[in-house]
Write the structure tokens for this entry.
Amino acid sequence: MKKDFLSIADWSSREMKRFIDLSMKMKAQPEKYSDSLKGKSVALIFEKQSLRTHVTFDVGVYQLGGHSVYLSQSDISLGKRESIHDVAKNLERWMSGVVLRTYAHQGCVDMGANMKIPVINALTDYEHPCQAVGDFLTVKEHLGDLRKKKFVFVGDGNNVCNSLMLMAAKMGTDFVAATPGGYEPPKDVLKLAGEAAKETGATIGVEHDPRAAVRDADVVYTDVWVSMGQESEKEERLKVFRDFQVNKQLMSLAKKSAIFMHCLPAHRGEEVTDEVIDSKQSVVWDESENRLHSQKAIMYALFAGQEDFMEK
Ligand code: CP
Ligand code: NVA
């Protein structure tokens, strides 16, 4: 039975830990896995711009011995030139897996539901699960045990925040989303995270005062205030989020040992200042590197026929 990688919520705490452990193994000994996708092709469909996700999936497929085919929105015009259903029915005849970056999360769900091969969500308006796996690998490398660490996301309760919150809940990491009123993570994601947190002993909270939220934080994370697809709200958002900038003053309220994280791309001078993103506390380039290792682990489990990796 194939399984798609669309939301962190669909995977158990044990499975997510396995993804992180496997990412570490693949990072340490990449040569051991270099034939995993031999003779297999993977479609990379991107309807939005990307640097990190595009490059790391492409390089990841290559390092696993496979072949990738990149398809932009202008190539296939998903849902316009041809329905998602028909694109799915074609791709499953040639490919071993699909990586999809799109707007509506339902697009990813529909792609997965209509094909026999697995789909990996490479970002939707709702979630960015691959980012969360790579980021928790980075936290583990820098801070060790993920349990009982305080992870504070400052800014917009967006796709990246949703996946990080679900991942924190599964890893037993305490999580706070510090957002302006009206920009909190969606209720259904808070509910799913709350349920997962009960099992691991993590706490999940929402705050509206960034200064109170980051006190004693181990991780301070932020993302852009205007995500792809929200360009028409830019003026309004720049005003609403003004007090949520991660700057030196805000970082000084976190633990001395705290790390700063950002999925990138960063809008320097908006959600983060140069002095923070370029500081010794910043681990943003490690995050970018780890996207490669963690996505190789996800592809190995899903596209290389490693069914026993997953719980039945
Ligand atoms: N962090 C991330 O997903 O970056 P890209 O949008 O450049 O892929
Ligand atoms: N929230 C951002 C993340 C980019 C990686 C966006 O969706 O544009």
In short: The first strand starts at residue 41 and ends at 46. Residues 8-127+289-309 form a domain with the Rossmann fold fold (CATH 3.40.50.1370). The CA atoms of residues 48 and 102 lie 6 Å apart. The chain has a mean pLDDT of 97.
